[in-house]
Design a protein that fits this description.
208 residues; mainly alpha; three-stranded mixed sheet; 7 helices; 7 strands; globular
Amino acid sequence: MSVPADIVVAGSKTADDWRATKPSLVNGGEKVWKTAFDDYFMERLELRYLAPIKVLQEHGTYRGEGFSIVAIQCSLIEFLESTVEGTTYRWLPSGREPGQYEYSSSKDIFVAFLTKRHPFSRTFDANAALDFYANVRCGLLHEARTKGGWKIWADGPNGTVADVKERIVFRNNFQQALLEYIASYGTGVQSDKALQEAFIRKFDSLCV
């Protein structure tokens, strides 16, 4: 079933806007891709994730808003990695396998981001990423709490995103690392054909 033309996907941009933009991206140069990144990717992230996190940071009381911040960050991670891979989540009954460019479990997506994407890959190996997924991401999104002894602190030393040994996530440092990654991705997608093809697949899944 086609996505309705007037569904908003990024700021004021609609599914129809994406359909009109897509042909220019197929063989588009860096300027075209920079505009697409700004208009669709960054606008979507800024309004739905980054601005709300900033509000919580600027008006927080250090009495619990870290849980909301990290919950949003965990949701954002899945979108970031699935955009890089050009994949789309699909719920499937037990025994059914996802199709090409689909996934039905967020675990692998989440672990891939933490272990492969700079600067997070400096902190997380596969075991630490899985621990974080199970006890921070799933704990927050399913039970509104961290599990397994994980704690959320505001800031850590030297920009550290997490202390995986002590099981502490430093949510402000984590946010700065996400912004650093997003900026790097924005540069890469302007010229990297694999990233561009994945970008198109992702926004097709949102708009087509």
